[in-house]
Amino acid sequence: MTARAPAPAPAAEDRGRTAALRAAAPTWLRRLAAANESWTFGVLALLVAFFTAARPSTFLTRYDLTQIATNAAIYLVLAVGMTYVIIVAGIDLSVGSVLVLSAVLSAEYTIHHGGAGAGWGTVAVSTLIALATGLVWGALQGWLVAKARVPPLIVTLGGFGAALGAAQIITGGQDPAGAVSGRLQRAIGFGKLFGQIPWLVVIAFAATVVFGLVLAFTRFGRHTYAIGSSPEAARRAGIDVDAHLVKVYALVGLLSGLGSVMWLAYFGTTSIAGHSTDNLKVITAVVLGGASLFGGRGSVLGTVIGVFIPAVLSTGLIIMGVQQYWQDVAIGVVLVAAVYLDQFRRRGRERG
Amino acid sequence: MAPPLLEARRLTKRFGHVTALQDADFTAYAGEVVALVGDNGAGKSSLVKTLSGTLAPDGGEILLDGTPVRFAGPLDARRHGIETVYQDLALAPDLDAAANLHLGREIFRGGLLGRLKVLDRAAMRRSAVTAFADLGIDLRDVGVPVAALSGGQRQSVAVARAVAFANRIIFMDEPTAALGVVQRGRVLDTVRRVRDRGICVVLISHNMPEVLSVADRVEVLRLGRRVARFTAAGTTVEDLVGAMTGALDAVDAGLAPGDRPGDRTGAGKDDPRQDGPR
């Protein structure tokens, strides 16, 4: 994205000198310092240190940790999918609406098959409906991006409106009663693994680990980076770019569907009006985590850190008694600062 | 002399009203560097794209080892041992050299992990180090993103990728166009090394002195057809320019008649004096 022209001779000399300097530090240390995740993690650590110092007795108690993790769980699942989309140089504005539509369709099934008192069979089918809705919607958007060549911003902006509209048509705009089986709520929404870790957190953690490993260590992940880095290069290398894009958008849809199940389990309602800014929150987290909107860069580990920065910030500000509207100001500033720093470092790196 | 490795006979390619190739012939032998020269619009790119499977010809035939072939696409040509180094490199800048070398041809771990398409990064890294070392390419770290490499190093990665997988022919479209003097020399050294392995290198270039310094033979295209062939030794830049522009209407200049099997068939119909440019 920056100059590709060959460096003139003096720059080459410079490069030699800095390389010699760098060689003094061990490789793993240099790699660590060069990794986006280390910097973002530093910001997160600073925030935690600051709030801990400011309110030693109240911040990061066990209750806080559980609360932060539970609140972040659903956004984390969406953000993992968004990481893939942003790495292929795409964007998905529709995640919140797809979540709502998935929730509504699965709720409709539950309402007609036992409502709040529904058994596990209904739970299983309604969960499958939620996942399938997300998957199909995502794949459709992916097809429009890859084959119909409509820019992803437009496709998912359309999807954002259409999915929410469809959900409102189905429900008449009201959150329906009896949308979730009480069994699902008790087991997953409020249940804890070994009585310690909320199931929501376990599910989010599992999804994050699985798709983090896929991105980092498999051919699917490698091709995701390659396509985001240079679609033409990927195509020439024999990668089926269109099919891969459809899969990536289908994945983010699937994870939105999973998010809807988690949401229903925890909150017990479809919250039709409550997801209009999910997309922005999730994109913020992914970008804070070091992903480049130009594609080719990012990681699930970075995204995890990026999800927790706003979560820690808001919890910390609440504990310090700061008016909650300041959160949004703070997150906005942190976001722009993070991207600015990233650009700054990147320019340095590409020069030599 | 062995029969040609790759031969194009009377290839024709049209784009709407534009005829890019008109009965174009081309011959390449194993273990040689053959330069393909011509003025802008002479049909060099179309010819290379046709021979590397990117374009399907409208007429004529392509023979590989004397057998007619029809490439379904670049991947098909690649399966026949034909690789292309594109002018704009076609590397993924955010991936490192090792990843780029194996892009689309990843090596997987063994056993269950392999079935899950888990990459064997160490193996790919080792193979990349070997591939670069074989070509005498000095790359300090194959784990650095390609974006951080110099123009020459990037070009080397692109060439090494083609070399690592080609076992017959490599097409190189202006491989030195964006490079400085030193880097240019390195790439040309690489070209010679590749040839010495018995692979045929087809070099497309505008730089005539460079063509004459590295190529064994030169084939000249003008207005979509081959108009002349030279052996590089003893040929001057003026000869090449003359053939490219049509000022010199010599066919197979610098080649003794019947020197190579393709000559006898090629000479007559290539002669622009007989049927002239369109």
Automatic annotation (TrEMBL), chain A:
This is ABC transporter permease. It is found in: Cell membrane. InterPro entries: ABC_transp_permease. It is a multi-pass membrane protein. It comes from Actinacidiphila epipremni. The chain crosses the membrane at residues 39-60, 72-105, 117-140, 152-173, 193-217, 245-267, 279-295, 300-319, 325-341. Keywords: Cell membrane, Membrane, Transmembrane, Transmembrane helix.
TrEMBL record, chain B:
InterPro entries: AAA+_ATPase, ABC_carbohydrate_import_ATPase, ABC_transporter-like_ATP-bd, P-loop_NTPase. The keyword Nucleotide-binding applies. Residues 252-278 are annotated as: Disordered. It comes from the Bacteria. SUPFAM superfamilies: P-loop containing nucleoside triphosphate hydrolases. Keywords: ATP-binding, Nucleotide-binding. Residues 260-278 have a biased composition (Basic and acidic residues). PROSITE patterns: ABC_TRANSPORTER_2 (PS50893). GO terms for molecular function: ATP binding. Residues 6-248 form the ABC transporter domain. CDD domains: ABC_Carb_Monos_I. PANTHER family: CARBOHYDRATE TRANSPORT ATP-BINDING PROTEIN MG119-RELATED (PTHR43790), SUGAR ABC TRANSPORTER ATP-BINDING PROTEIN (PTHR43790:SF8). This is Sugar ABC transporter ATP-binding protein. It comes from Actinacidiphila epipremni.
